[in-house]
From TrEMBL:
The species this protein was found in: Saprospira grandis DSM 2844
Top-level taxonomic group: Bacteria
Transferase in keyword set: yes
Entry keyword annotation includes Methyltransferase: yes
Keywords, ordered alphabetically: Methyltransferase, Transferase
Species classification: Bacteria, Pseudomonadati, Bacteroidota, Saprospiria, Saprospirales
Pfam families the record matches: Methyltransf_25
PANTHER family listed in its UniProt record: PUTATIVE (AFU_ORTHOLOGUE AFUA_2G14390)-RELATED, TRANS-ACONITATE 2-METHYLTRANSFERASE-RELATED
SUPFAM superfamilies for this protein: S-adenosyl-L-methionine-dependent methyltransferases
Annotated Methyltransferase domain residues: 36-128
InterPro entries noted in UniProt: Methyltransf_25 (IPR041698), SAM-dependent_MTases_sf (IPR029063)
Protein name listed in UniProt: Methyltransferase family protein
Gene Ontology biological-process annotations: methylation
Gene Ontology MF terms: methyltransferase activity
Amino acid sequence: MKEFWNQRYGAEDFAYGRRPNRYFAAHLHDVEPGKILLIAEGEGRNAIFAAQNGWDVCACDLSEEGQEKALAWAKKEGLDLRYDLGDFGALDYPKESFDALGLVYAHFPPHLKVDYLRKAANLIKPGGLLLLEGFAKGHTVYQEKNPAVGGPKNVEMLFDKEEMLEIFSDFEFSILKEEVIELQEGLYHNGEAEVLRIMAQKKVN
C-alpha cells in the first residue's frame, strides 16, 4: 500500500490538486482554531489550508513522497507544519489531545477500519470537532460508470451511516449524510460520486 501511494505522490503534479477539500474547508471555519490532526493527509492540501487559517496542524501519512511534498509546500508558504510518517495504527498520540480531527478520503483496510476510526475518535478532546468526507458504500455504482472518480475497489473500505453512528457513539452529529456530489480534485477524483459526510462534536461528560 505504501508503494502505491509513494508512486502516486511521487509525480510532479499534485494527485488531488492544491485546493483543500471543499467540505472540509467550508466547515473548518465553524470553530475557533486550535490543534488539529489530519490523517492520511497525502500531499498536504488540507493541512496547508488549515495552517493558513490559524490552526496548529499535525498531519500524518505512510507515504514519504507525500510527506516530502507537503513539507516543501509548507516551507515555501512560510507555514509551520508537523507531519508524522507512518501507518496511523502505529503512531502514538496522547488521548484527547486534539481540538479537531479531519478524515478526508481516509480509507483503511477492512480488518483495520473500525479500530483506526475508534482510535481517531479517542484522540479528540471533549467538545472537539470531527470532520469526515469519504466514499459511501453506494459509491461502487459510480466507480463502475466512471473509473476516473476514484476510490477503493473494496466495498468494505467504504463508509455507511449506521457504522459511523456505532463507531462515533460518543459524538453529537450536526451532519451525518450520504449524498451524491460532483468531485473535481486533481487527477484522481473527477466525476459523480456518492460520499458520506460528517460534522460532529465529541460529547462532554
